[in-house]
Amino acid sequence: MTVGVNNADLRQQARELIVRATSIPSLSGQEREVATYLSGWMSAHGFTASIDAAGNAVGERGSGPKTVVLLGHIDTVPGEIPVRVDENDVLHGRGSVDAKGSFCTFVAAVAGLDDATVARARFVCIGATEEEAPSSRGAHHAAHTYQPDAVLIGEPSGWEGLTLGYKGRLVLHASVTKDNFHTAGEGTSAGDDLTESWFRVRAWAQEQSGEGIFGAVQATVQSIESGTDGLTQTARGVFGLRLPPHVSPQQARAELSERLYGLATLDFRGDEVAVRHPRDSVLARVLRVAIRQAGGTPVFKLKTGTSDMNVVAPHWNVPTLAYGPGDSRLDHTPEERLSLSEYDQAVAVLQDALTRLALSLEGTS
Length: 365
Description:
Elements: H1 8-23, H2 32-43, E1 48-51, E2 57-61, E3 66-73, E4 84-85, E5 90-92, H3 100-111, H4 115-120, E6 121-128, H5 137-143, E7 150-154, E8 161-166, E9 168-179, H6 190-208, H7 212-215, E10 218-228, E11 232-243, H8 249-259, E12 265-272, E13 275-276, H9 282-293, E14 299-303, H10 308-312, E15 320-323, E16 337-339, H11 340-362
Parallel strand pairs: 3-6, 3-7, 7-15, 8-14
Antiparallel strand pairs: 1-2, 2-6, 4-5, 5-16, 8-13, 9-11, 9-12, 10-11
């Protein structure tokens, strides 16, 4: 199938793709129905498509010696938003922005590549499962399956935005158990000790922080509870840490374990290392040119959250960026929505960029 960037039929089919994909519920761990739909759409549009062992929807086009992986996620957080396209051509629905919109952008752009481009490179679109869950099952599977030459991560950046990096993450579950005692007596309660643990976590975060929001260690209380059965007091808290590149999860574990020694029982989870890619890679260059050709102004971004970029970065030391239409401030909110005209623009930009990328990669060893 050979189509061009201005092909009206493909543009309409691409819109139907995103509306239908958004209409299919796909909470983390429940992506089978949407993966089946997406793999079917890809099969009908020139891809070799399947559902892999991790439940990912995978489609491949091209036979060239270089491999470009376009990794997006097809699961969503909870929260039902009635799916509709309003009078302003805006798609409302859970996943429209985060991040079915980005993955559908990938699929539609690759479907529109001409024969010369797919002869120069192999394009692998992976609709990953469980990105919104701590497991990141789909991305971990992909990281051990492919060895790409360039990687695009599907996350909303706006059609003019290029995301270079994401902060790391660590989640600390702290608990304190003590014999019950009268509040008029001496000593500290379980709640006191848990509170002191939080104060020490927050102080450590402030000490470790660098410049700007991307350089800061952000510490938040995710939950806290305490109580007694009359004999024993218990207090539990969950503290979330967003880590900049200069603070690894391993460092955070070691230093917080030392600071909270003897105060609380600690359980660390959800390790993700921060990642930041250069802005002058071949991938960044072709996307900048494509955005300018479309009348836009490229904007580089660094995100304080995490994404599948964190998962694959230790395995894929190749040019990598995150790209996708939509406003990331709408992620996980009741107002999640995506302008279909922006979606069209992102598809066109990405198709242009991938065409340029295949040419650029052709001459590399």
